[in-house]
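pinging the channel bc i need a second pair of eyes. not urgent but kinda urgent?? the chain im working w is below, pasted from the shared doc
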Amino acid sequence: MEVITATGRRKSAIARVYLSQGTGKIVVNKKDYTNFFPVSQLQYVVQQPLSILELSDQYDVKANLTGGGVRGQAEALRLGIARALIKIDPEYKPALKAEGLVTRDPRQVERKKPGQKKARKKFQFSKR
């Protein structure tokens, strides 16, 4: 089997995912994913697509992550893995879609406006 490539994004994080036949090894930026994501909750997020389909020990994942924070990178990686699995077998899509792993989360940080403290917060109004 050749290498399947897919892209996942979340906020400003971008994950380029390379999926190939293997033993279940996940490598992120040339590190094991347990070292890259030391928090167990983020490790669970990364494994979600493979564990839902019970394919954890059948595919090797190599990923390059850039931008964003740790949580955004983990969720971008999750989307990239899900998209790569769907490229391998389109019959995986309904199971992944039921868990909400196929949809890209469109929420972005709203920009700060001039004359305001933050995006929506205003400076204190003084009547007199």
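so Strands lie at 4-10, 13-21, 26-28, 31-32, 59-66. and The helical segments are 33-36, 40-52, 70-88, 93-98. — does that match what u expected or am i reading it wrong
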